[in-house]
Amino acid sequence: MDELLDGLPKLGSAAAAIALFFAALLVLFLIGGRVRGKFQGPVALAVFLGPAVILVTMGLIVPAGRTIYGSFLDANQEEFIGFSNYSWIFETQWGTLTNTILWIVITPIASTGLGLTLALLLDRMKRESVAKSLIFMPMAISFVGASIIWGLMYEYRPPTSEQVGLLSQIVMWFGVEEPPNWILWQPFNNYLLMIIMIWIQVGFAMVVLSAAIKNISSDVVEAAELDGAVGWKLFSRVTIPMIRATLIVVLTTIMIAVLKIFDIVRTMTNGNFGTQVVANEMYAQSFVQFNQGHGNALAVVLFIGVIPLIIYNIIQLRKERAIR
Amino acid sequence: MTALKRRRGAAVLAGGVATLMLLAACSSDSSTDATATDEATATEEATTDVAAGCEAYADYLGNEGASVSIFTSILPPEQGLFEQSWSEFESCTGIDIVYEGSDQFEAQLPTRIAGGNAPDIAFIPQPGLLAKLVADGGPVAAPEGTVSNVDTYWNPAWKSYGTVDGTFYAAPLGSNMKSFVWYSPKTFAANGYTVPTTWDELWALSDQMVADGVKPWCGGIESGGATGWAATDWLEQIMLRMYGGEVYDKWVNHELLFESPEVNAAMDVLAGWMKNPDYVNGGFGNVQTIATTAFQDAGGPILKGECGMLQQASFYANFWTNFQEGATVGPDGDAFAFYLPAIDEGIAPQPVVGGGEFVAAFADRAEVAAVQNYLSSAEFATSKAALGTWVSANSGVPSDTYAEGSIDQLSAQYLTDLGGTFRFDASDLMPAAVGAGAMWTEMTAWFAEDKPTAEVLKAIDAAWPAS
Amino acid sequence: MSVEASEIVILPGPELPEEKSGIKESARRKLSSPWAVVVVVFITVIWTIPTVGLLVTSFRPAADAQNTGWWTFFRNPAVTFSNYAEVITGGTTMGTGIMPYFFNSFAIAIPAAIFPLILASMAAYAIAWVPFKGAVWIFFGIFALQVVPLQMALLPLLQMFNLGWSIGDIPIFPDLNKPGSQQSLLAGTYIPLWIAHTMFALPLAIFLLHNFMAQLPRDLMEAARVDGAGHFLIFRKIVLPLSIPAIASFAIFQFLWVWNDLLVAITFAGGTPDVAPITSYLATIKGSYGAQLHLITAGAFIAIIVPLIVFFSLQRFFVRGLLAGSVKG
């Protein structure tokens, strides 16, 4: 009971902060709303856009600029060393780069593919909400929680003793006498880690794609059916083109999430056993081995890796805007 | 129009209420502060009135109501013993010590210092990290009281680990005796094994266990972000035993390369021990499982009779009750440790690899100095040691503080023996890129992937910072 | 492509009534196949098993949890609540129990969900409906910012909170360092966490809310403007009410994200019971309990119970938030 009472001031300070936030906004709105004439537009712009732009500049743009600059400096960020950090990456970090590429390609495609399959299957079913909720549930679990959950799945014990990891037990039920030590089983351990991310992301892909499928106008579907399009033909000629924009958004979102993911690798293997990825190596270089130069260069490699993706998305967005 | 006006009025009122709420929140904060000060004053009065039991803390008075934050890598269950050990200091001096432990300590501390959110005090286990922090301008020099305590109570070698470029920053705190082998006295007695006292006897015993159908050794080096550190300890034990202190020091300073024949030979010895499929990994499976077994879990099979011995430091005494409720640590108990024997007393008499924490301060306030002085005093070391499973190389701790026949007594005996060859954990002295980086990951790959020794050593050398 | 208001305001959600579906009932029944049901049930079971394993382990006695697989529980059910009792009170191992961290998580996550959503909706409105040069590029720029790795922003932000920022002599953010220490006045409060989470959430929130708001009917805005309403009035009276479903649902998403965050929390709040959230506590017990799976799983389940409750009770809003702006039929 005492603990509950101790918690109240904490919630109170949160409530006070929220109240202050809204009070400040109200004052801004009252003042801004009184402005008339030619200043109306600029004032509105400043009030509406200003806070977000300031916060994003301080929190993301300035750090990004510093990172790019710092990638040309040495470990202590004191001397300019040109592209040495980058040549270090391409000389010693090939394994990390290829693992990251595998993650970026496999995880979004597998998540989206499985999500799309589920969305299509579920679309034809009643009582779909139960299945959807359960498949979507991992999204609500933290990465720390997920790593504990999957630790239980991949736990290794010698074949002679009683099994604690479910995966080992299952393959033994199927007659495998000596299951591998999963986390050490190269290169498949990479895929075992990806499964955790796929487990989390499939629900997201499924729900968004399912909504897009339901949104396809029934006229279109009926017209296609009258033309004799069923099954695969209906799917490839009508469904896919109709939800193409959504598919791109889903793929992009998961890809960005995967690029920055480091929690799963960090908690499951810490990048050992040939499972290192760029985001975790970046954390290790910057914060454990104190080589800011290496860390910054790795971050820049991540940026550059996503730039084509961003440009593609921007082109798509511009097309849509042009239509509008 | 009226409606609109009224609504605005209400909005202003709402804003006012919000401001009032915030003011209320602020004032309630300050009132709690006031209560805290009141309590402190009350304690002070109590001190002057009663004074009983607080005489020892006279030097630290004058900082009532102050608060000192401590950041460490030491997690529960050890955290509780620390808090217990200074509770009297807190109540007598009115200084509130706020303890925070993190398993990401090594990454978090530099981040917070660089960000200007340094703790008042940090317990740093790596002199290499301390040197790095000093280079970045973090720690403040130790106060006079601490300097004189360390000069009085510690071996100069310990002081040198807390000294960077001639300035003394950090007083030693606890000490780990790392040259221990854990075993089960009950199992040994039941099987008629005797504790080995020489290197050869150790391997004879191992072979005896193999003949009896028990894997003699178990090990685990998984430790989250620090996976691999336990393996570096094994290499250090062998390096010190094979070549003695001077070569060990050269190795620490990278005057002796990892690719040298000496280190290669030491790795071969380690391969015949912890990578020997006949010897390991008792209770866990094959050699590779060393890489995936948490160091905290590694000793479990000893109590089940599935493994004979585990090379680990003295602090491992804290873990045995995790495996078995009520497990006892003692010469006749469920678990105990013997000294890992020397290879050749002529090269290195009684070699001991040790570790420890160093108390670095990042603030020069009076209350921080008071805590630093107290932590370096013989009184604190005695009070902490009396709680058990903790050893200090502080010579002011009376030898009867450690329970007779306890692991702590044994540790203290080896740590304070001036005739022995004491060296600090090498990886903790090396630069972070090696000691907290390549050496951990490469040794892990050596066990997990059977990466060839030559490649492992080459990669570690390559990671050594240029400057 | 002109868009009808009714299509926008009601976004498709997974549990919306069947008649919203594009495919007719007859077609649906025709396409249903028993194989599809089998596949869906199979995948659903696989997706649920890992979490069930966690839940089951957390109720098992210590020895059972360490020595036998959790699935043997169903052959040999032995249930204990002592794992939860130990985790909640802290028992002999942990100093404080889990409760202070639990409150911290709420105190961090609720404001950190509200602030960015309000600011993002304002920014999204400005980009979509206040005509100005460069609106498109600001929008694209904000979209592109999603790729900035969080880890790289941590240190500069910490420095700003604690040492202040200035350009030359002009202070941008005040130096809040306490005299005699290297510690900020903000250390040990929730404020740095709220600000950091707000900053990191803005790009995605602005992007999604902009997509949503840009599809609001132009006629409505123009009618209001003809009546003499300024941007502030239009935002408050028209745009905000119409966007509430999208904002609220994205706020739930943000709440879960903040609740589950560990990296930002340990950097800006540290691990003391005063401010650290429950994920930080979970990471600590994972390090401290070592082999004691029964305690780790109990702690983990307490940590994920709030997200799960939020998720299952507010699911349809949560889903809508994800859909806001991302679905175009």
| Assigned CATH architecture of the domain at 98-323 in chain C | Orthogonal Bundle
Helicity range of chain A: over 70%
User: What general outline of chain A do the C-alpha atoms trace?
Assistant: globular
Q: In which order are the strands of the major sheet of chain C placed?
A: 1-2
| Alpha plus pi helix count of chain A | 14
What distance separates the N and C termini of chain A? 58 Å
Number of helices of chain C: 15
Number of strands of chain A: 0
Structural class of chain A, by secondary structure, is mainly alpha
Most strands sheet of chain C: 2 strands, antiparallel
Q: How big is the Rg of chain A?
A: 25 Å
Q: Which structural class is indicated by helix and strand composition of chain C?
A: mainly alpha
Q: Helicity level of chain C, as a percent range?
A: 55-70%
CATH homology superfamily of the domain at 94-275 in chain A: MetI-like
CATH fold category name of the domain at 98-323 in chain C: MetI-like fold
Write a structural description.
The complex is a heterotrimer of chains A (324), B (467) and C (329). With 324 residues, chain A is an all-alpha fold. Chain A has a domain at 94-275: MetI-like (MetI-like fold, Orthogonal Bundle). Chain A is 76% helix and 0% strand. Chain A has 14 helices and no strands. Chain A has helices spanning 2-34, 40-70, 84-92, 94-123, 128-136, 143-154, 166-173, 188-214, 218-226, 231-242, 244-260, 263-268, 278-288, 292-323. The longest helix of chain A is centred in the N-terminal third of the chain and has 33 residues, at 2-34. By secondary structure, chain B is α/β, with parallel strands linked by helices. Chain B folds into two domains: 55-176 and 355-409, Periplasmic binding protein-like II (D-Maltodextrin-Binding Protein, domain 2, 3-Layer(aba) Sandwich), CATH 3.40.190; 180-354 and 422-463, D-Maltodextrin-Binding Protein, domain 2 (3-Layer(aba) Sandwich), CATH 3.40.190. Helices cover 49% and strands 12% of the residues of chain B. In chain B, the strands form three sheets. In chain B, strands 1, 2, 3, 6, 11 and 12 form a six-stranded mixed sheet that branches. A four-stranded mixed sheet of chain B has the order 8-9-7-10. The longest helix of chain B has 48 residues, at 2-49. Chain B is globular, with a radius of gyration of 26 Å. A two-stranded antiparallel ribbon of chain C has the order 1-2. Chain C is mainly α. Chain C has a domain at 98-323: Orthogonal Bundle (MetI-like fold). Chains in contact: A-B, A-C, B-C. Chains A and C meet through helix 1, helix 2, helix 4, helix 5 and helix 6 of A and helix 2, helix 3, helix 6, helix 7 and helix 8 of C.
